[in-house]
Give the backbone structure.
Amino acid sequence: MAKNKVGRKENFNITWDDLKDGEKRTIPNPTCTFDDAFQCYPEVMENIKKAGFQKPTPIQSQAWPIVLQGIDLIGVAQTGTGKTLCYLMPGFIHLDLQPTLKGQRNRPGMLVLTPTRELALQVEGECCKYSYKGLRSVCVYGGGNRDEQIEELRKGVDIIIATPGRLNDLQMNNFVNLKNITYLVLDEADKMLDMGFEPQIMKILLDVRPDRQTVMTSATWPHSVHRLAQSYLKEPMIVYVGTLDLVAVSSVKQNIIVTTEEEKWSHMHTFLQNMSSTDKVIVFVSRKAVADHLSSDLILGNISIESLHGDREQRDREKALENFKTGKVRILIATDLASRGLDVHDVTHVYNFDFPRNIEEYVHRIGRTGRAGRTGVSITTLTRNDWRVASELINILERANQSIPEELVSMAERFKAHQQKREMERKMERPQGRPKKFH
Ligand code: AMP
């Protein structure tokens, strides 16, 4: 899904994508120094200097230029990457530039929702540490003294940092008015969903202006977070630090088979025939036609399967998934489209019959196994048609300490040599231009 700019990826290990439909925008260049981002805001620079930071962290370098342009952002990054300042600094500037802010301090302009009281307090700590132009922040969270929090809100507030349950309670009882929020942060969105806060978030956001700017952070990028982003962010850009869902990758033993298009079939037959009675596998294919072909081939061979792809009726898809979940059927053939949000906890194997469109999808697919503390196994067949992905795949395998087949290394080398040759040819052609053809 994500597109990489080589420089970004090599220097910062960042991948990014524009999630806007239609024509994609150019992603702003990363800010390599604090000056690049904040030279027009001396107070921000002073605070950074006081903190003694040397340079922006990778996520900051790519997030700041996006958020400062007013674009919605999803940052996929863990705690410890500097993600809090990614949204706080631009948030301060955003608030300071709002014409309606002054004199309306009973109506906050920035809201940060966090899953836990600990994180809320930590964010408030950062807010105070880098306090900007006297903006006042208040932290409200469940378990804290409600009356004191109400009193703090009464004194006037520019920034609310809150856990969803308590804020929803104060909102319903008219202790806080969220109608002027123009800058919203959903921090650690994956955790908020895991903790079941979605209904409260929904209610809170009913009061927040739809034309606000929104920043969301999440340590992982599962379907549920994807869905949340689709509902609450407008044409966002997404920035990932590191590889997606590496936790899942490290719990999966990844096997790679370099083969030919013809032999792919026999490799898979052998695998399916040798499955034990407790194994459960998802076989990923690239297209619906392949799914259908494979399904009928296996049914003819008396192998019980289910299939999931976009052309099947919703009812059939639900039934197929149900049969797979309960274990009535232990082989599921799926396309990537249908596999989104597939959460079956006891999948033992992922079989990539076709390699996916890109490496992120590969990581996503193999994360369907090895879940919730279990280990899993993935098998991926690659043919010479897949040589473009070989070097990225080697990267993933290296990071997860997996063995790398010789054939994959030579595939990557061949592709690199091929690219260099084409680049040379292009260079040779450029100065002279193409010779004119006479027919
Ligand atoms: P966070 O990921 O937001 O929880 O931040 C983790 C820690 O990194 C916090 O203590 C920040 O103060 C610190 N930090 C934030 N930005 C930088 C930076 N550019 N250089 C060094 N440390 C930073």
About this structure: Residues 62 and 290 are 39 Å apart (CA to CA). The chain has two domains: 7-241, 252-418.
